Amino acid sequence: MAGDDGSGPIRRALTGLLDAWLDLDRGSAPALGRAREQAAVVARAVGPRHGALAEQVPAKIALGASAASDALADLTRVFADEAGALVSLLTGVAGSVTPAALGSGPGAVVDAFPSGAARHYVADLVTDAAHDHRQPSSAAEQVPAVNAISLSVAAGVRAAFDGSVGEAMLAMVCHPRGHAVQLHGPDVPDEALMARVSWKKDPMGRTDTKNSWRRDADGTVHTKHALGHVAGKFTTVEALVKPLRALLAHAGGTIEGLHAYLDRNAPAGFARIFVAADDAGLAPGDSTGFRGAGTSTASMADHWFRARRDAMASGGGPMPIVRTDQIADNDAPGAAMILRKVDGDWMMITCYPDSAQGDEFMRMGAET
């Protein structure tokens, strides 16, 4: 995602055009229908006394509605031509866009585009547009930061493990240098997840160089907080500890065994481990979050990422996002854990639900 290929502003423009086209398609036919209905009401009201006028009203309304319909059709043609040009730039696929009659529905908007990559691109955006969320940066600015681990979560982590193991695992999960609970635990509110994925706002409110966040009066947003197109969390403490319990069992069920496993597989003191959902016992409903809308392929996700960056730099409106369950919505999901050895002991930096194993992660059970 380094550099700037120009796709960010293009994706933002396409999002706005499709919004306008869908709004026009949704609202124009009912509006014209209501005008005709009102004309009929007027004609009936004046009919008994002014027969000639009663005859003229429907004809004049019909003429006006026809002219309005033609004008709206011309506007639709403009939307179609411009959207087609933008989709061509994003996909590299050229082709004419043939809009259907207004009021034909979102499916007809999609079908107006050439089959293949262009239509798939638009279909993804239109499908997500039906249930997307858009959090303005001004709203994100008001989301409070929470940089504390609640007693209930801490107690839940301790209780998830037997005996003295519970204390050791609590120390590992809730280490002062970690942020698994604060960024991906059950107490993170939806608004904070939305602000994180939409505007890269750190839910913890950290003020260091990597994570500080500022919104200026002109709407521009400034931060180096790192995040792709998804912000997710575990919905319960039980779900949060499932991957760690699986790793502990895989390493023999003892703290000593876990440390030996980590020392053996990460001698440099830094471990990235992916635990598949089936191995961890993670099920649909164990995770929730938000992802960028229209991000079903790597290139589309990259376009959304760049569009968000452009919105932040220009003070623009929010890119659309949709709710997601990383465990339920993907074919090979699991949990990604990052652990580090600090002062001779292993601690957890983070643990989060993920759609698939990342390239830099070792899969539990597939160690060399």
Automatic annotation (TrEMBL):
Protein's name in the database: Uncharacterized protein
Domain of life: Bacteria
Organism name: Jiangella alba
